[in-house]
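Aim 2, interim progress. The first record below pairs a target sequence with its structure tokens.
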Amino acid sequence: MIDPVCDSEVNCFGAYLTTFVGSTEVNLVDDVNRLATASVRRSGAVTDGATLLLIRVSSNSAVSFSIKTPSGGSPTANEWGVLTDRHGSSSGSFITIQPEVTTQGNIAFAAYKTPLNFPGNSNSRMEKITIEATSSSGNVNTTLDLLRPPIVLVHGVWSDSGAWQQLDTYLTDRGFTVLRPDYRADSAGSFDPKDVGHPYLIATVNLATLQARESLRSSGIAVTQVDVVGHSLGGLIARKCCKDAIF
């Protein structure tokens, strides 16, 4: 499974996507030679409803891709994510793709998009699905770990990150990756983006969202979005960051 967001382990800015920031319509680039050489592999992905993974199989004949649930069955809905062609159409848990000629040989390209909600039960930290590819040459499959999205907890005015300790423990015990930015050094500072004298609050939360994604990517997990929970002023800061398409 290839991460089209990254062209290296540390450079993740939508390298193989048509649109990455500021749009809900994100597809793979329309260049099969570039897709054939993308190299950042992932063993898992977060269930944020936005993370896209590239699947490719070398083949001279049509390839049928399918999603298998942890029990080995076929999904009856999209709760385990969807497969699409490289243009983002024909979505479902089963799709057949014709190979295309590339500089790396004939390759069938598909994409997998994670579900919006974690499909496991409330006590499950991770669920494992299988993507199966079948052609006239035989079958190949790969497994993918599905994890809960990272959460950034933003405290309120004149408070600090310690206010979230109990919730942090609760969420961490249930498989979430949690970060708690702390802006106490400028707790009463401005969150007005035009106020160049007080950039600390926005920058602190922005940094936490980046660190949340980097933490997962360093463990081989693909991630696009971060869930943010804010209290009081923390909620206003989070709304400003969302408006700037930080997430």
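The second target in this work package is listed in the same format:
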Amino acid sequence: MTRDLISYVRERLFVPKIGAVWLLLSAMLMISGAQVLPSPWWAPAIAALGIVSFRLMDDLADRKHDIEMHPERCLAQTQHLPMFRIVAVALVVLTTIITVLGLGFYRGAGFLGLAGALFFVGRAYGLGAGRRKIVVLTVLLKYPAMVLLVAADPLSAKTLVMSAVAYAIPLADEFTGQRTSFHLSASVLALSAMANWQGILI
């Protein structure tokens, strides 16, 4: 059981692409939520928990596809599926609590609502290959949604642009053959641009 969890973490979380997403999202949350976060360090914590929670939820929802297309993956082979479901629920609850403690009830409720929405969207993976791309495009909205949830001013031009970038980079990465290299380079460029913008606007 523990071995399966460790294998999943190594296979699906400790990979360059997820590290790049975490850096990018942490920077965005830190900038957009600067006025409401108790400390800048809450941003990478919320980003990490959100990414891990939603990654596991998505993998669980898409398990049937992985069994057919990626039978070598840990989640496709595990005999401890209920344990992974419990872990996913626990991660969502933990992230919701931390968001409530750091950002208040309404933002915490927003995160819980986002998790619920992703759960129901994930069930659409089983509707057939023709709708799979639509489901993927919808699931990727989790990244800009997190930026908007944490932002002090969700409707500001800066927040909206960052939200668009948070969607565009994973979206482009999803449809490129050079996933890891593209994601890393795009994240570095986006982080550099936001750092410059942060210095100008704040």
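The CA atoms of residues 16 and 180 lie 6 Å apart. This observation will shape the mutagenesis plan for the next reporting period.
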